[in-house]
Amino acid sequence: MTQRKELALRMLIFLAIGLIASAIFSEITFRLQADTTNRDPTTILLVIPAGTSAKVAQGQSIIPAGQIFVVGDTLQVKNEDSVTQTLGPLVIPPGATASMKLDQVGSLSYTCSFQPSKYYGIEVQQGLSFAMRLEASLLAGLPLGVLLGVYSLVVKPLRPKVKEPVP
């Protein structure tokens, strides 16, 4: 086999190894993080339980201070309290439900009557698709494969081509 063919074969092998290693590592870390953005948009229900206004007046928080959403989600707020509650542009009378569509990426902080801080944070992220995960594996795997291929030349250099004596 010529040196050029041996080099090409070695680089292809290490490119494949880099891509596979990158994809495996990426998937393991993705699953360990339990990412909540790997889903289709949906309706998320936030229930304000009865007695919330009294607890907020005492400085207690019974609802988490914020949430993470995917672009396209709808936040639906149901008020089971006896007092009208507000969340940003939503005014929710007792027993009523109001909703808002979250259609832009960003960190939002709405004024809110059911939090002691009077603010409710909303993080809207782009949903993580298979194409994005594949692109990330390629962006990491290609350079890794090239580096492995180059380092393989340091560890085990190509054999010099031996010239046959001419008779």
Which secondary-structure class do the elements indicate? alpha/beta
Q: Please give the count of helices.
A: 3
Low-confidence stretches: none
Helix fraction by DSSP (H/I, runs of at least 4): 25-40%
Q: Mind describing the biggest β-sheet?
A: 3 strands, mixed
Radius of gyration: 28 Å
Proportion of residues in extended strands: 15-25%
User: Could you give the count of β-strands?
Assistant: 8
Biggest sheet, spatial arrangement of strands: 1-3-6
The dominant shape is rod-shaped
SSE order, one letter for each helix or strand: HEHEEEEEEEH
Mean pLDDT: 88
Give the CA-CA distance, first to last residue: 23 Å
Note down, in words, how this protein is organized.
There is one protein chain. Helix content is 38%, strand content 25%. The strands form three sheets. Strands 1-3-6 form a three-stranded mixed beta sheet, with no helix packed on it. A three-stranded mixed beta sheet has the order 2-8-7, with no helix packed on it. The protein has a two-stranded antiparallel ribbon with strand order 4-5. By secondary structure, the chain is α/β, with parallel strands linked by helices. It is rod-shaped, with a radius of gyration of 28 Å. The protein has helices at residues 3-33, 52-57, 130-155, and strands spanning 43-48, 66-70, 74-79, 85-87, 90-92, 97-101, 106-111, 119-125.
